[in-house]
Amino acid sequence: MDHHGEEEDPKEYRWETGYEKTWEAIKEDDDGLLDGAIADIIQKAKRKRQAQKTMQNKLGMMRHLYLMLDCSESMSVPDLKPTRLLCTLKLLEKFIEEFFDQNPISQMGLIVLKGKRAEKVTELTGTAKLHLKALDGLHKINLVGEPSLQNGLDLALKTLKVVPSHASREVLIIMGSLTTCDPIDINITIDALKQESIRCSVISLSAEIHVCRHLTQQTGGTYGAVLDDSHYRDQLLSHVDPPPAAQTQENSLIKMGFPHARQDEGKEKDPPLSMCMCHIENADEPSKITSAGFHCPQCHSKYCELPVECQTCGLTLVSAPHLARSYHHLFPVQNFTELVYNGQAAICYACQKPLTEATDKNVYRCEACSQIFCLDCDIFIHETLHTCVGCVTIPGAAAQVHARKPQAPPMGMLLGSSLGQRF
Amino acid sequence: MEKAAAENDDSGSVSLLVIVLDTNPSQRIVRQNPDNLSQCLDATVAFGNAHLMQKAQNKLAVISCHHHATDFLYPMPVKQLEVRQVDGQYEVFSLVEKTVKQRLSHIITNAPKITQPNESLLAGSMSMALCYVARMQRNAQPGVKIHSRILVLTGSNECASQYMTYMNVFFTAQKLGIVIDVCALDKSLSLLQQGCDITGGQYLRLTQLDGLLQYLLWVFLPDPKTRQMLVLPPPTKVDYRAACFCHREMIDIGYVCSVCLSIFCKFSPICTTCHTVFKVPGPLPPKPKKKKKV
Amino acid sequence: MTDYKASSSSSKHGSVSSSMPSSLLVAKPANLQCKDFQEYLRTRSPDTLEKLYNYPTICLAVYRELPEIARQFVIRILFVEQPVPQAVVASWGSQYYAKEQASSTNILTELNVWRTTTIPGGLSAWELCPTFKKNLKIALLGGGKPWSMSHTLEKDSKPRDIAFLDQYAMSRWRCVLHYMVGTGGANKGQGSEVISPDAVRILLHANLMKRDETGITITRQGFQFLLLDTQSQVWHFMLMYLDTCEERGLSLPECLSMLFQLSFSTLGRDYSSEGMNPKMLAFLQHLREFGLVFQRKRKEGRFYPTRLALNVTNKAATVPAVVLEDEKSQESGYIVVETNYRVYAYTDSPLQVAVLGLFTELLYRFPNLVVGVLTRDSVRQALRGGITADQIISYLEQYSHPNMKLTESAIKSKSPLPPTVVDQIKLWELERNRFTYTEGVVYNQFLSQADFITLRDYAQSINVLVWQNERTRTMVVTKNGHDDVKRFWKKFSKNAS
């Protein structure tokens, strides 16, 4: 076992860093209350996160990620509250939602390690709902025995091997145990992973483990041991953004299918009943025979949800909105200018909140449309909406915005051609 | 007591309806007959009041999307109008009616003259509605759940240039659990239809204005929870196909640039939008062979 | 057969033997019956309902009380001129919710909102009660006469703000509550307030207080009443008032319509009493006494409705769900309950302390804080006094401190109280209810197994069988079912012989 982070960052130890006077940031207001000061700090933190986000990410288009969760006895340790497992499940919920929000055409699967065995809880799929349901089921899982890293990696390897190579293949391991119990030499598995260029990252909940670090170094992943739950959260959420390895990946044109619900033109009658391919091998939830669904344009297999990879012909099936969901990375809203409020506007342009000197110390102005927004709207616009409300409601400004963004062609559901100028 | 518990369940929820009304004079139905606008307005107000009538806790906001600007018709941002009853109408309902009409006439009289037909920036108005909803949700009392929905009432054609904004609006609504309902009064609107599909809302296209209020009450008044209990028009199939950037034609199978997500109908060695050079020349096999890190 | 007769006469009360005297077992103590508006309406006669529906306010209130589906049905046929065939209405609802739909249909019929007619072709159809239809339309769209209190007024030179009205209303209402607690004895003088004989009469009528040799004392229902939230208290009290209003010479529809007008008014705005008849003015004075309206002087033609009057039937609506930046929020919660059963109440009101003392053991008193603990003994004492566990829990929830509502468990479970405490209070109640008592008649000494089985199956088929044992050929039927079973037996045995 190595000491945590020794060889990379000599200043990792807390006692070696400078003396942080954290309390000096907090000042009492006139009434002796701290609320205002704390709200200020929160506001600043929110803005800071936002400012960092504007750095242009290259899109990791398709990620295939296996989440490997240790469910051995060591996960019942209560050093993370209430226990390691419950804390993990709570954070994973958030992680999964964020993951699919940020990586709309990616897929994820869940593997559980317990009692020296690896068990696939969910297959690689692009729907968050399925994973969240599976996570819910893990709350009552019996935490027994030791984990087997190798069995888990082998299982992930088996599936990831067949994933088309233009996509990034990743494994994220959450390890509570300090040991792993493997059938044979794990280095063989690690070499195989390296061969298939599967990137393995580990988050350790206890201490750093040599074999894990070795694994991450060999496969180009990251390694982290958590300090506490908030550090854990940051570690986990750092895996939401596409990894740097995906950026060095070769660019390619990926063949994709755009299925549409089949309509026989001119005919009123329903399309024929058929079974979907995604549930056909699923014993718990056998596929229902319905007329609705998405048909692969190449081989006409039917699927009940998108995005999915056709099991028959291997074509990636997506819908236009799935691609559009990623565009906000390409066209972020420019940061607003922070101004001290002195009556620039009576109300926030977006949410109609009355602005007063007492409640709104700062207001924010979009430089393109010169409208004034409140702090909450500033954050909402940049973090969630990705559209400046002023720029898209005022005709002059709107015309400019629309000129640089993809457009739908006259028929309505297409992506336009004016992407170019930005690159 | 059991009953009380069930009611508690219900009492913690508030239904917020934001109506986005297209008041742009360039709409075909308004150009043909200006009275149509006031007919729409009357129906909207009556519908909004019917929503308020359902429960004392229900909330309403009305936004007008005019050719030059988007404005709130109700409620007033700071101070509400002083309204006294003039007939048997419930005071709150009169307030809605008066406020909406007064604000709209103010907007119309102050609007610049239009020289040529102008598009309605509906996507923008919807994004403003989302900000309003987000504010309401921020301000909700602890333990109160706000169920919000946005109803768009428009006779405009949708404009392709707003595609990005529409998509951002739809995904934000989906993330916040806001249902988008659309009532198209003229042409069928395929983009907004996608929005309804994504957020689980109802899409309805009317070809005439007669009985508008009845249609609204029938299809859009029940909140999403109640809709399950009623038989409503089944969702129409939405076409989510994409069009290629090169010829703007609808395609079933296409090639997507891994950097900028541009869509092409044929393989080309260079992406025409972001000028990325693709490493594998020639047509891509369905399953490209491993090419990395050999 | 004679044998059977003998056995039937040897019937005894109580299916489960117990050491307690049987009369106590059977007569369950009457609890406070709180009707909501819908239940209240259902007990009115169709004629009364018809009269009530002459007021748009009442129609609006009735409409809001309807179940979700019923409201949709009403609004769908509100603008339809002809009756709508019943089959058509039935097809509106999804078949998965047939039960809800059936109950909604029943309620609409019971409340006389709609009725069956036949349309040409012999189909039965629904038709909205014309009075209801007309007046609901007026409330929604306008038309008709303005409500009686909306005469225009000159601007009040000294308008009253909402904070003032809230304070005024609560102080008036507390007078009534103080009177209920205070007359019992200890803190006479400063604590007990004087209320009008009319109010006392209502309390007596409602059985919240009773007259005995020592004077007027609070009843068990009275204690239960104290535990209700203010909104329910006001509503229950007003219902009792309406019960007695005819005796006073007031007309029920007028009073009810007035009450709902107040309930639909805007807080912080003044209204005019001009043009009201003397009876309504008298009613207004009563409302003023209870704190539902504020009026500076008896003769002044201007009054302000208070929060007590707003949304009188719907307690959820009284607290604003969304507090906008420009509105002031006002907190009502003052109780903190911890998982160790400690109760901290930030209050100095003797009334609140007294109510809390009903079911907690008070430990310390401070100028603005009372600390108590929920113990088995203190809760059981309350339970013995006729207060139910649910009432205790809902009281604690109702007045729980706003910070309690922000804890994670509160957000998940909707109850701000620690689940352990809630469960334990319920368990304490359950442990008192190990017996259920049913009055019944024993049938035994049957001559043949066949006789027994026939009679037993009959009793079961009409749902009156309480208990049976085939081996000893003994069965118990409920008291109500006794006559039926006896008649059946006589007929059966006659046929058999």
TrEMBL record, chain A:
GO terms for molecular function: zinc ion binding. PROSITE patterns: VWFA, ZINC_FINGER_C2H2_1, ZINC_FINGER_C2H2_2. Residues 64-240 form the VWFA domain. CDD domains: vWA_transcription_factor_IIH_type. Residues 364-387 form the C2H2-type domain. GO terms for cellular component: transcription factor TFIIH core complex; transcription factor TFIIH holo complex. A zinc finger (C4-type) spans 296-313. It is found in: Nucleus. One of its GO terms (biological process) is DNA-templated transcription. It holds the Pfam family C1_4. It comes from the Eukaryota. InterPro entries: C1-like_sf (IPR046349), Ssl1-like (IPR007198), TFIIH_C1-like_dom (IPR004595), TFIIH_SSL1/p44 (IPR012170), VWF_A (IPR002035), vWFA_dom_sf (IPR036465), Znf_C2H2_type (IPR013087), Znf_RING/FYVE/PHD (IPR013083). Keywords: DNA damage, DNA repair, Metal-binding, Nucleus, Transcription, Transcription regulation, Zinc, Zinc-finger. Belongs to the GTF2H2 family. This is General transcription factor IIH subunit. The lineage of its organism: Eukaryota, Metazoa, Ecdysozoa, Arthropoda, Hexapoda.
TrEMBL record, chain B:
Its main location: nucleus. The lineage of its organism: Eukaryota, Metazoa, Ecdysozoa, Arthropoda, Hexapoda. Belongs to the TFB4 family. This is General transcription factor IIH subunit 3. The keyword Cell membrane does not apply. The gene is 101898102. It comes from the Eukaryota. GO terms for biological process: nucleotide-excision repair; regulation of DNA-templated transcription. Keywords: DNA damage, DNA repair, Metal-binding, Nucleus, Transcription, Transcription regulation, Zinc, Zinc-finger. Component of the general transcription and DNA repair factor IIH (TFIIH) core complex, which is involved in general and transcription-coupled nucleotide excision repair (NER) of damaged DNA and, when complexed to CAK, in RNA transcription by RNA polymerase II. In NER, TFIIH acts by opening DNA around the lesion to allow the excision of the damaged oligonucleotide and its replacement by a new DNA fragment. In transcription, TFIIH has an essential role in transcription initiation. InterPro entries: TFIIH_Tfb4/GTF2H3, vWFA_dom_sf.
Automatic annotation (TrEMBL), chain C:
Keywords: DNA damage, DNA repair, Nucleus, Transcription, Transcription regulation. Gene3D superfamilies: 3.30.70.2610. Residues 7-21 have a biased composition (Low complexity). It is found in: Nucleus. It holds the Pfam family Tfb2. The keyword Phosphoprotein does not apply. GO terms for molecular function: ATPase activator activity; double-stranded DNA binding. The keyword Transmembrane helix does not apply. Residues 1-21 are annotated as: Disordered. It comes from the Eukaryota. Residues 423-490 form the Transcription factor Tfb2 C-terminal domain. GO terms for biological process: nucleotide-excision repair; transcription by RNA polymerase II. GO terms for cellular component: transcription factor TFIIH core complex; transcription factor TFIIH holo complex. Its main location: nucleus. InterPro entries: Tfb2_C (IPR040662), TFIIH_p52/Tfb2 (IPR004598). Component of the 7-subunit TFIIH core complex composed of XPB/ERCC3, XPD/ERCC2, GTF2H1, GTF2H2, GTF2H3, GTF2H4 and GTF2H5, which is active in NER. The core complex associates with the 3-subunit CDK-activating kinase (CAK) module composed of CCNH/cyclin H, CDK7 and MNAT1 to form the 10-subunit holoenzyme (holo-TFIIH) active in transcription. PANTHER family: GENERAL TRANSCRIPTION FACTOR IIH SUBUNIT 4, TFIIH, POLYPEPTIDE 4. Belongs to the TFB2 family. Component of the general transcription and DNA repair factor IIH (TFIIH) core complex which is involved in general and transcription-coupled nucleotide excision repair (NER) of damaged DNA. This is General transcription factor IIH subunit 4. It comes from Musca domestica (House fly). The gene is 101895061.
